[in-house]
Predict the 3D structure of the following.
Amino acid sequence: MLLSFFSEDKVEAGCDEAGRGCLAGPVVAAAVILPRDYKHPELNDSKQLTRKKREEIRKEIEREAICWGVSFVDNNEIDAVNILNASYLAMNRAIDQLKTIPELLLIDGNRYKPHNKIPFECIVKGDGKYYSIAAASILAKTFRDDYMAELAQHHPQYDWHTNVGYPTEKHREAIKAFGLTDYHRRSFRLLPEQLELFDEF
């Protein structure tokens, strides 16, 4: 069971992002404010759940959350400001969508660049510790996966319906064979001398 809240009395929003390590597509962030008494026996870090289970829990989060927001920062913005700043930008945009202004932000990871005066706590592996961050991780992951599945219909050779833009061997071989699309991140090292395999998706 994850923890329901970090503070005793503040309105908390959990924040997380998905797609930071991808070669193509946006980075997507979510912010979620859950009821303080919210519990779910299966809610966890999105990477620990099956796609089917993520989709099931996503529907409940959308229904049960006090409010939530999801934001996309596309590959062109990523190339312009770098992936770390793009991740902060996505989180800030997701937070701005919240209909309730949080009093504390719970940020997954060890760094954050705020754009307002809302206090925050960075929590390493927070998506496996707090319900609100886990909920944000599921929204960010599922919204991004859905988007990449749509792109895959128009660019099937890159296998995005399976790798969702991560640097698998098949993805990199397709880049070699077919070149780049308008959705690839040109600031990333797309074709290193040795193919690196990632298993984050």
Notes: Helices lie at 51-64, 75-81, 83-96, 131-154, 160-163, 169-178. The two ends are 23 Å apart (CA to CA). The longest strand covers residues 12-18. The CA atoms of residues 116 and 158 lie 39 Å apart.
